[in-house]
Amino acid sequence: MKKPEKKSKKTSGQKTAGMTQLPPRISKDEYYLSIAREVSKRSTCFRRSIGAIIVRDDQIISTGYVGAPRKTKDSLEHGFCLRDRLNIPHGQRYELCRSVHAEQNAIINAARAGVSLLGGDMFIFGSDPKTGQPIDAFPCFICKKMIINAGLNRVVCSTSGGGLHIFSVEDWIKDWQENDILDDTHKYGMPYEEKNEEEKK
Question: What's the number of CA atoms in the CB half-sphere (13 Å) around residue 46?
Fold first, then answer.
């Protein structure tokens, strides 16, 4: 009696007869960051296009992008950036900006929906609206404080090199327990390459 032949298991990424090899599957962090990139395309800021999403239990529970408060006139409608007109450098005087940051809008939108953020992760993608080039989308000090108080676990950000950088919110808390806020090594607006050089010193 002839033994039945064992069938080989087909897995994604393998070459089989008549089939081409599938591209490698992206990670969950890359997947969610790519969704944040789509959200960023709704931004109304002349300086930065930023999108943020919050994920908890592998579900997107909130999104936000850089934009003026609801029912108010944004910078695109005004036709100019107020901060540029006032010669305000990046990372300063955020009270003189028409927009709410993407991270803040994601947290606010969750509150409007009555959704808890505790234990969730935030994904932030940023680019230069003039060139489309990705940037180091690290949160500013105001957003970092809100992220800590919202009870989020991780923050996954795009980098200018086209990759991603993962921050542990618990690490931010420990840093601020031991040092002051101004001692942060990953400051908003400082190129990622410069940060790496500073850390090596």
Answer: 14
CA distance 125 to 41: 10
- Residues 53/60, Cβ–Cβ less than 8 Å: yes
Q: Which residue has the tokens 């808390």?
A: 173
Output the tens digit of pLDDT for each of the chain's 201 residues.
545 444 444 444 545 556 778 888 999 999 999 999 999 999 988 888 999 999 999 999 999 999 988 988 877 778 777 787 778 787 778 777 778 899 999 999 999 999 999 999 999 999 999 999 999 999 998 999 999 999 999 999 999 999 999 999 999 999 999 887 766 666 665 554 444 444 444
* Residues contacting 194, CB < 8 A, separation 6+: none
151 φ/ψ sector (left φ>0, alpha ψ -120 to 50, else beta): left
Distances in whole angstroms, Cα of residue 84 to Cα of each of 47, 50, 81, 90, 126: 9, 18, 5, 9, 19
Q: Where are the alpha helices (DSSP H) in the chain?
A: 28-40, 75-78, 82-85, 102-113, 141-150, 169-178, 192-200
